[in-house]
């Protein structure tokens, strides 16, 4: 196409009086860059078309995807809620989908402020489902859960999840600076962040690798160290309820022991619910919940459950 335009320009120039050699040269030079200009124009058009398609898909997703929060979830709790950590579960039935099969059925349990509760059971017994129900990540079909005498049904889900300290099995390391990873809401001073890292034995490690302003992507940590970072974040969270979903699984004995030490020492005034794969980590807890196929089959002190034939003793013996 450029060759055709160049030929046309030369033909017109030779037939037009007053055309100079200099003007013809400038025209030919500009024609040489025309191809690149056309390529840039076409590329820009394609990018605009792609961007418009992306915007359309985002609008479609926003319009068609059901909202997680329900209209009835409009009751904002007090700023310090939950202030004691009392948990009451009343006839809880929950499913992963509305009108779906119940993964938890008829759970009744009272957890007093400051109690340490170990949660165990075979694979598929409903341990993680119970944790998710506390966070309203499964649908509550029956019964209710009360935190400090307030039903979670009317509390916005984002508010509920922010007010609870949760540590999953897989460490969650946020992208950004180490300071942001530990304190994403910027609620703590440098001194308090340092204290939290010192409590889990990670302050020197982070200092040697760039300090609080190092990017987490540039700070390689082992799985155990990552989980200790998450425990530091929980220390800074100041919630009265700490939930651990097999957070000590797949850790070496030293890291596991350090986590249990911090949980017992620094969260002594908090209610702790810990899903455990290794039962020795919850042996000294106040009470044990044993789930089986979504039902609460045992709830009591570890010594009592181990002193008689029980599901807990059965699982304990299988790990001995």
Write a structural description.
With 320 residues, this protein is of the alpha/beta class. The protein has two domains: 2-64; 114-136 and 151-319, Rossmann fold. The chain contains twelve helices and ten strands. It has helices spanning 2-15, 21-32, 34-64, 127-134, 157-163, 178-182, 190-199, 203-208, 223-237, 253-266, 302-306, 311-319, and strands at 87-95, 102-111, 116-120, 139-147, 150-151, 165-167, 241-245, 271-275, 287-292, 295-300. The chain has a six-stranded mixed beta sheet with strand order 6-7-8-3-9-10, sandwiched between helices. It has a four-stranded antiparallel beta sheet with strand order 2-1-4-5, covered by helices on one side. α1 (2-15) packs antiparallel against α2, α7 (190-199) packs across α9 (223-237) and α9 (223-237) runs parallel beside α10 (253-266). It is a multi-pass membrane protein. Keywords: ATP-binding, Membrane, Nucleotide-binding, Transmembrane, Transmembrane helix, Transport. GO terms for molecular function: ATP binding; ATP hydrolysis activity; ATPase-coupled transmembrane transporter activity. It is found in: Membrane.
